[in-house]
Amino acid sequence: MHPSLKASGSGSIVFISSVAGVVSCSVGSIYGTTKGAISQLARNLACEWAGDNIRANSIAPGVIATPAAKTFILGEEFAKNIAPNIPMRRAGEPEEVVAVAAFLCLPAASYITGQTICVDGALSVHAF
């Protein structure tokens, strides 16, 4: 991957992590650890590859209304125990994650590297 991006003159890598890699979300320590490692990889690559004009960032989605999550989001558990703890009181839409990924690939984001951007309705910054 690095040689191709370097040869192009610039590049942007966008990893998909999870809010569970930023804060404890009761989804399991192994899941949270591996997602946190993805964000750390983005930080390390940002430093290692910056001289080659290659940027690396990660996106940490919260609860997103994907087809796989629809049943959960429509269920009583989400409405009663999860949504009230998300300051925006809803699940995110896949398009909201995609928009951040697209932005990170644009020249407008050319000075953003090594960051983890949470797309989570403020779940990761909300004190329970």
From TrEMBL:
Positions of transmembrane segments: 12-33
InterPro entries assigned: NAD(P)-bd_dom_sf, Sc_DH/Rdtase_CS, SDR_fam, TR
Localization of this protein: Plastid, Chloroplast
Keywords (A to Z) from UniProt: Chloroplast, Membrane, NADP, Oxidoreductase, Plastid, Transmembrane, Transmembrane helix
KW Cell cycle (keyword) present: no
Family (UniProt): Belongs to the short-chain dehydrogenases/reductases (SDR) family. SDR65C subfamily.
PANTHER family, alphabetized: TROPINONE REDUCTASE
Name of this protein: 3-oxoacyl-[acyl-carrier-protein] reductase
